[in-house]
Amino acid sequence: MSTPEPAQPAQYVRAASSESTGQPVVVPAPASAPGTEPFVSLHTAVVLLAAVVIGLVIATLTVLSGAHPATAAITGLTAAGAGTGVLRNLIR
After folding, report:
1. Share of the chain above pLDDT 90, in %
2. How far apart are CA 53 and CA 46, in angstroms?
3. Fewer CB within 10 Å, N or C, the chain?
């Protein structure tokens, strides 16, 4: 019956055993792998998504009111841009 091995701390990864001693070699795990951070934060994604939804709603309402579609697009973009700053402060 073999003896149980002691638990390794969470920040260490077990590597292959050493050829000379037969004992396991423990090497520190990398703090964070490069490239694992997100492209945009969750806060930024939520703010931009909400701004796009607001812009689409305003553009749709503008078209339904009888305005030219180009005017509705400009109105929607303006609403999305203006809403971004407000949403950034409201969503925390």
Report:
1. 55
2. 11
3. N
